[in-house]
Design goal:
- This protein has helices at 20-39, 64-70, 76-91, 96-115, 120-141, 150-161, 170-184, 262-286, 299-307, 318-328, 381-404, 413-429, 433-444, 446-454, 459-471, 498-516, and strands at residues 16-19, 49-52, 58-61, 143-144, 185-187, 193-195, 200-206, 214-216, 218-221, 233-242, 290-293, 311-313, 332-333, 345-355, 358-366, 372-378, 406-409, 477-480, 485-488, 495-497, 520-523.
- By secondary structure, the protein is α+β, with helices and mostly antiparallel strands.
- It folds into three domains: 17-144 and 408-523, Orthogonal Bundle (GROEL, domain 1); 146-216 and 370-404, 2-Layer Sandwich (GROEL, domain 2), CATH 3.30.260.10; 218-247 and 273-368, GroEL.
- The strands form seven sheets. Strands 9, 10, 11, 12, 13, 14 and 15 form a seven-stranded mixed beta sheet that branches. A three-stranded antiparallel beta sheet has the order 4-17-20. Strands 7-16-8 form a three-stranded mixed beta sheet.
- Helix 14 crosses helix 15 (459-471).
- The protein is elongated, with a radius of gyration of 31 Å.
Amino acid sequence: MGMGNAPILILREGTKRDKGKDAQYNNITAARAIADAVRSSLGPRGMDKMLVDSMGDVVITNDGVTILKEMEVQHPAAKMLVEVAKTQDAEVGDGTTTSVILAGEFLKKATDMIDANVHPTIITAGYRLANLKAQEVLKKVSTKVSIKDDKVLKQIAENAMISKQIGGSRAFFADMVVDAVKTIVDKDAKGRYTADLKNIQTVKKAGANMEESLLVKGLILDKEPVSPSMPKKVNGAKIAVMDAAFEVKKTEIDAKIQITDPSMLSAFIQEEENMLRKMVKQVKDAGANVVFCQKGIDELAQHFFAREGIYACRRVKKSDIERLARSTGATICNKIVELGPEDLGYAETVELKVIEGEEMTFITGCKEPKTVSILVRGGTSHVADEVERSLVDAWSVVKVSIEEGMIVTGGGSTAMEIAMQLRDYAASVGGREQIAIEAFASAMEIIPTTLAENAGLDPIDINIMMRKEHKAGNVNAGLNPFTGKIEDMRKLNVIEPYRIGKQAINSATEAAVMILRIDDIIASNASPLPQYGDGSEMPNMDDD
């Protein structure tokens, strides 16, 4: 019996399917579009992007990962490149634009090979070999740096900021960044340096020049004392950090109190007052003259605190409470009755300051200043936001330089050296993988090419001049975008952490390999439920 010509539906209706080369071109085009979007922002001569979200909020930035996060990317392959940038940001904090441009270029080179009928598996195998060799070269050209090399660390911070809006004030901010990171550095069990960037807090306030930004060895809280009659400044602060409310507890169950005569009412009110008085006395007896409370403080308790001359803030954020405990040496206390002198933290001064009409509490001269705060200023809120983003990049690179202890030169010099050595290596591998390794080498040159383009120079001339220098053995020869000449990047102090390059090449290769291995895209169409004329949904007709 014949089957007839009835179509066989395997996939749901409306499903879109791309196979073979179509699928690969589709993915590669989408990923390259993402790389092209951030390309013009690479390097000291890079341009900024203005991103407007659906709510009309504006972000003006030069930071690769911020651009990609704000872009709301839909295409699945393009999302993989956004992931590359996010990983780079989480691991190193800088080099996000570089990693995405590299991934885009690896895919672009792969297109030519697919056209020439080189199988994607061969391309991916070649790319993996090239990545291993690139990491080897990178390690070979890196040099050591120690936590004592302030000059080098400041240079690294400056280079992370040079392409940003705060490039003009980079020397001022570099001092601040290195000081901040060195303050929070600790040693782990093996004696290695570690720095937890959560211990650097930023508070943004628009309305002043960015060079009026301030580094505070301690904390800045966006809080003011609960009562205006409290002291505005406390010297030799003994600080109680509380996670308990200075309020009379309500019972869990519904309870009724029947009051039949007026004296009972005044006794009831008196008792409530006594309870609050007792709480404040407990704090006073422990020797505290400053209280930071994560929960509420009753109005009556506020009055008692003010009478005792105690500086008290309520509803302090949990993250700030933890920072306070860490930097002042206080113990977070959950029960008021258990507060003792040994639980208190110490700071030289706790002071109320007014900044741009807002009251803030500055806690300085802490016992163990393992936390620092930076008050970020900017002419407008957009500028302050971008200053903060740039500072985050800068202290991330200083942190990884201290932890890893290795640096490489910038200006496209390492990318060019990797490209040169990979070409020699390709010949030794032979086979079809050789084609992929050579393509990988050419793709690495996208970094000096883009730097030249963004500086308005001829990329072909620049690459030829750079190759010549590297052939002659000048490993650190890179592009100076301000003069348009090929110079020794080490002498110019254009340096960056080794981990930036390591992570960027690694994640870009892995993303490219992942996208190249896809030869079939099955995208289901999320069709809405059919509706009746009145807009109500169709009832479910399925049998149970």
